[in-house]
Amino acid sequence: MSDENGTPDTAKGPRPEPLRFFGTTWVEHDGGYGLRRVAVAAGSLAAAAVACLVLRFAYQGLQIAHVGTLVNVLVVVMFAVCSALAFQHTWGSFSKRPDPERQSSLRGLLAIGFIGSLLAYFVRSLREAPGEKLHREEYDEARAAYDKRTSRRTGNPSRKRRS
């Protein structure tokens, strides 16, 4: 291994893209990959629980301020809808690359619905490292293209047919 992220020592060919919290351990499922998945799942679930607790305190603050039923309902609906949209967006980004322009336009919505993003991260980490499937497909395509290019260049030149 060439570094602490578990990057293999391959000088030639495409290199796997590191994932957050996993480095390149997702390629061979080594270097504590299983423990990292458990830690990411537990951490994202704990962060979502703490975030819900913070939102509960904020809601209680609105009740203490007597802002009215309409405002209370609007706040709850806003967080619920934004969390659902953030979950859907985050879940979709695990299977295809998000559009950077759309990502920047949704930044506010994703910030409000951060609980949905945390829950998507939790659910996905139960199955695999979040984003592993997308990165594995891209890496396998790059490896296949590289192997195809190098196999055409290598070989015994004396066995090649002359025209």
Explain what the structure shows.
This protein has one domain (14-129). It is built from 6 helices and no strands. The chain has helices at residues 33-64, 69-93, 100-105, 107-112, 114-127, 132-153. Helix 2 packs parallel to helix 5. The two termini are 46 Å apart.
Number of helices: 6
| Proportion of residues in extended strands | under 5%
State the distance separating the first and last CA atoms: 46 Å
Q: Unreliable runs, pLDDT <50, ≥5 residues?
A: none
Tally of domains: 1
Number of strands: 0
Largest sheet, strands/sense/barrel: none
Q: What do the pLDDT scores average to?
A: 87
Structural class: mainly alpha
Features:
single chain, 163 residues, 6 helices, 64% helix, elongated
How would you summarize what this structure contains?
With 163 residues, the chain is mainly alpha-helical.
